Amino acid sequence: METEGTISLLVQLIQNKCVNPPGNEMTSIKTIQKYLQEHDIESQVFESAPNRGNLIASIPGTENGPKLMFGPSHVDVVPVENPDDWEVEPFSGVVKDEYVWGRGALDMLYIVVTQIQAFIKLHQENFKPRGDLILLIVADEEAGGIYGAEWMLKNQPELVQTDYLVTEAGGLFLAPGKFVVMIGEKGGAWKRISFKGTPGHGSMPYGSDNAAAKAAQAITQITRYCDSKMPITTEYLGYLAQGMGLGFVQRLMLTNRRFLSFSLKNLKKRDPQMARVIHGLSRMTMSPNIVHGGTKVNVIPAKAYIDVDIRTLPKQDDEYVVDQLKKALGPLAEEATIKSLTAEEGGFTSYGNASDVSSEFVDAMEKAVQKEVPGSKLVPFIMPAVSDCRFFRESGVQAYGFSLFDPETPMSHLSELAHGTDERVSIKTIDLSQKAYYNLARIFLGK
After folding, report:
1. pTM exceeds cut of 0.85
2. What is the DSSP letter of 108?
């Protein structure tokens, strides 16, 4: 399958600089529409807001078979905080050292272009799928999906109706012959915890009612609670252990609640990134990331608040979140006001969700990977971040994070570079991913 054209399109999308906010994704949507037209493929573009929009194309099914969607794949990217720290200009799309460099290359423009290329090849081959093959490219994933996937489901539901979909961010190399498939994701339930105090002169702090001091104490208690007292769920660690083919003792150390804390401490010394992944798969996490309080250095603050990034596993609702926060705060909970962050405050709320761990479609994804990496297996995983999959899972769609990374790329690659400095994706990953999508459509929708 052609890689040169895929890389060229990826470079162009990086250079389009669709940073969200404000997004301006229509620039890339029009780029993609033109590229599809050059390959004799008609598509529809829907404007969801000024200079923002979404694109859809399809290859109709010949029977009443299952529908498969490539996407929703988003073209918006996050801002670059320190461009001077990059080896290359962040929006240059430089190709060097067998990588394509630039903001969005990894999250998730490489998936956008490889799905497009697989779709084009199938169209050129006059592929006749059993059910519809849909290509959906969207805006606004990085800011909650209001003008992207969610907008399409609300405004064009009949066009985006599907049974299965593949999007970000699977295919990561976990171990020899083992690749991750994202069967679900954690939710985001961001909360603001506020405290009140009594203002006074900063020169006489003894016995004062200091709101900032309460916030500081709350941060310490939340962090300790999350690390050592948060209820543990071993279901998703069990999928990981089974998929990795771990022996009895290794599996026990990973999936037994009594041994997990010890295992995490040892793993942290050898592989800190994997320790964070295992920790996140085993519980709801709470990270106090913003603290604000006080008006002047010599005035004891009367108000202070903490904004906490809370990530929930499937089946953990708002009642569970608030209950665990109060347990973490202990006696401080009586003085705390807990509320959800509004969109205007930079927050949003979603809850953990997951698709089937095993099915005919999961088997098809594994076979699609095996055609490129013989003998490989897919390992079910829960994505620690939020994606557009949640909108589709709410309506019963089986949604998966699926691509195929170069086996030489460590799993830490994604967490280090996505949204990070020197974001980049390897040319081999681009080649493997477009082949995996092509293989999947042929295997699952072929007659």
Report:
1. yes
2. I
